[in-house]
Amino acid sequence: MQDIGPPVPPFRRFLALAVPAAASLALFVDFVAIKARAGGRDNEVYRYRDYSPGVRGFGPGDFHYKINWGELAMAGSLAVVACLCAAALLASVLPVNAGVRAPAGSDGVQMGGGLLASLVIGVAAAGLYAVGAAEYIVAPAAPFLKWAVTPLLPLATVVAVAAIAVARWGRRPAVGWHVWLRFPMSSVIAATAGMLLVHYTFWHWTDTPLVEAAARFGGLLIGVGAALALAQPLPYRVVVAAPLGAATALLTSPDSTGVLGVIYVLAVTVWWAQRLWQLAYRPPVAWQPPR
């Protein structure tokens, strides 16, 4: 599929895909490293109610250490982001119309199919994160799936609607598909660094006030990362980042990482909702006609 927008340097295309993919893997590896930090003893990470062989029951209070559920949620969301950045590449191998009526010369059906395929791959990767972490830590998969996949449902809904809209309307962004799909790398880097810092401080939370300050700075970075996704012009980013970063910094604690992770996933969802809004309400002059 030929992109009609201004040419994007290949290295920039590579970075748009590689940065969220690397961030997702880094968060996942750091998430499962809790077992190594506990000395590899399964019962130090996850406490069973019944130690008899084959029993994998769990209930409130079974987790011995505070597991960083927000980190798992962010890892899953960035896996989806990375896959969606590659949607144009996946679309290029799909049939042009696939038997669906579309305007002459339109690649909307291809692009819509690429978006859906990328979404499915990304959500599947998040599910594999959950199952793999549960097996590695030796714990029931249900809570891991809950935090890795459930926060992605609003995002998946928005992307699916956007894919249908692309296929139905046959519009093309004037900036080209690669630019239109590119998620802000600054957002990914800030939020990932913040969550890694927050997770590191888990193991030293009560040591010194400096450690708590570092944790809250990590929470601040997560809020800033979310703001960088929510707004594009620099003045708007500053306006959004100030209160959101302050709020996430105040929320930061070993018990609130799930909230921090979900905040960032919601920011990703809003970013994609903005893309859907562009499809629906941007004036026709903002789009190039198919050729």
TrEMBL record:
Transmembrane stretches, start-end: 14-34, 72-94, 114-132, 144-167, 179-202, 214-236, 256-273
UniProt key word Transmembrane: yes
Keywords assigned: Membrane, Transmembrane, Transmembrane helix
Top-level taxonomic group: Bacteria
Listed name of the protein: Uncharacterized protein
Gene source species: Phytohabitans houttuyneae
